[in-house]
Specification:
Number of strands: 0
Number of domains: 1
Shape: globular
Pfam families: MFS_1 (PF07690)
Distance between the termini: 9 Å
Keywords: Membrane, Transmembrane, Transmembrane helix
Protein name: MFS transporter
CATH architecture: Up-down Bundle
CATH superfamily: MFS general substrate transporter like domains
CATH topology: Growth Hormone, Chain: A
Membrane topology: Multi-pass membrane protein
InterPro entries: MFS, MFS_dom, MFS_trans_sf
Order of helices and strands: HHHHHHHHHHHHHHHH
Helix content: over 70%
């Protein structure tokens, strides 16, 4: 199968396309919704906590922010291989969800020690690394190949709903502690957010156990062996898609930096900092399903490349002296649309062309490349910001995005037989 063959829409009625996705996709989406409420409660306050609360430099925050994603790299591959080898994708994903839930409690006992906080964050992201590829593999196995764009769109929509609600819950907790309208929240306020985050994450694990069903690929006749990994790494389709994931990660500086730049311009109170994530996640929520359906209809490559246009537009706006509420609204709108156009679409593009016996490992390989590249881009952005200024850092990110877009267009273009 070639990349050009996965873009063909299924020959079913418009209404039946959504019902054909399957209950397992919706169950996985519900688990992701609850888990993202928990995760985004922490993510929404973490930049303010680290930079404005603990006084981290832009470079130090870039390293921690990169670690937040980059720590998933090794365990993505390990989790993908383990899931393929045991064919227990639900179990491996469940372990990952559990590790992330427990890590939320670690934030309570680490005080203000940056290295210790970084370790807890790494544990949380390792849990995400374990669960992401098995979960996405379950989605590819639970829906028809021609409807994978919609399947991932539905999942990412529910995921985005949780990401939208998470910062609101964090804001509610900060408000209850009297910290929403001041310029610095207390440690007790952050601790309250962390405790609530753990409780919500534990509920997500329970939903996974009760409602998600294991799904094994009927075409995978044998279990993969170690030597199959070399064959996967040598597969030109897998290598191109992994490279596409790498350049996407290299072009993305991360929401934390975007929100810190917006906060610096607006003077937003710390307690209201989570509302910036709400804006991004609301847009993602509204557009994820539409982006998936559009990708099935018009081509997943086209929608993915459109995401680079949106990302470049974000950096252009941030490079200007423009200030005010309209500027913030436009950046958040573009940011949510960028994620809707790239996140699930890249996985939908990759799923059908990877070997059945190593589908989870292949998805993990792509996600690992993206995570490692993101770690590098976060450190680089923080370094340029600290060494020169924010405008220079944003312009560097814009240049990298243009180069990444061109590289991705070459990597994912349809191939002739």
């Amino acid at each position: 199968m070639y990349l050009s063959t996965v873009d063909r829409p299924a020959a079913t009625g418009a209404g039946r396309r959504w019902t054909a996705i399957g209950a397992n996709v919706f169950a996985l989406g519900l688990v992701s919704l609850v888990t993202d409420v928990s995760a985004e409660m922490v993510t929404a306050v973490l930049p303010a906590y680290l930079v404005l609360g603990l006084g981290l430099t832009p470079l130090a925050y870039g390293a921690v922010d990169g670690l937040y994603t980059g720590a998933t790299a090794v365990l993505r591959l390990a989790g993908g291989w383990l899931a393929d080898r045991t064919r227990q994708r639900k179990t491996v994903a469940g372990i990952g969800y559990g590790v992330s839930a427990v890590a939320k409690l670690g934030l309570l006992v680490m005080g203000t020690q940056t290295a210790a906080i970084g370790g807890v964050i790494a544990a949380d992201r390792m849990g995400k690394g374990l669960r992401t590829a098995p979960r996405d593999a379950l989605i590819t196995l639970s829906a028809p190949p021609g409807l994978l764009g919609r399947a991932f769109g539905v999942h990412r929509t529910l995921d985005a709903a949780g990401a939208f609600l998470g910062p609101l819950v964090a804001l509610g907790v900060l408000t209850a502690t009297g910290s929403a309208a001041v310029t610095a929240a207390s440690r007790d306020a952050f601790d309250a957010v962390f405790v609530c985050s753990f409780c919500v994450a534990a509920f997500g694990v329970l939903l996974l156990v009760l409602f998600v069903k294991e799904h094994r690929d009927p075409l995978a006749a044998s279990r993969p062996r170690a030597r199959d990994l070399a064959a996967l790494a040598a597969d030109p389709r897998a290598r191109r898609l992994t490279a596409a994931g790498c350049v996407l990660g290299l072009a993305t500086i991360g929401d934390g930096f975007v929100y810190l730049l917006l906060q610096r311009r607006s003077g937003l109170a710390i307690g209201w900092f989570p509302m910036l994530a709400v804006g991004t996640n609301l847009t993602y929520l509204l557009l994820a399903g539409l982006a998936g359906a559009t990708a099935d209809r018009l081509g997943r490559q086209r929608v993915l490349l459109g995401g680079y246009v949106l990302l470049a537009a974000i950096y252009l706006v941030l490079a200007t002296p423009w200030q005010g509420t309209p500027m913030i609204a436009i950046v958040l709108l573009l940011n949510g649309a960028f994620y809707a156009s790239t996140d699930g679409v890249l996985m939908a593009l990759a799923g059908p062309v990877l070997p059945q016996t190593l589908r989870t490992t292949g998805l993990a390989m792509i996600q690992t490349g993206q995570a490692v590249a993101y770690l590098g881009s976060s450190v680089l952005f923080g370094l340029v910001w600290q060494r020169w200024d924010t405008t220079t850092a944003v312009l560097v990110a814009f240049t990298l995005t243009l180069l990444a877009g061109v590289a991705t267009a070459v990597l994912v273009r349809p191939r002739a037989r």
